[in-house]
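[job 4471] stage=fold_predict status=RUNNING
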Amino acid sequence: MNLQRYEFPLRLSPEECLDYYRGAIRQVIVRCTTGQTVQFPAALLQRFVTQDGVAGRFVLTCDAQHKCVSLERVVGPAGTPADR
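[job 4471] inference complete, writing structure tokens
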């Protein structure tokens, strides 16, 4: 299977996360470390939301049809190792 990986930093405040939960925003657009722009469903972030919002460095993996296979946090807030 031909998978593509997109790595990016992300920080969302608790208020920004509320817009996703309310359904006002359904897609997240991020700039990858390579300079590429990637868009994915906001619902993928739900498991990473805390009372402080969302923070860390993430890797989005997509298949050849650009469908999301996984989203993982590889570095947590303030550079802490990601919880796996």
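[job 4471] summary: The two ends are 24 Å apart (CA to CA).
[job 4471] exit 0
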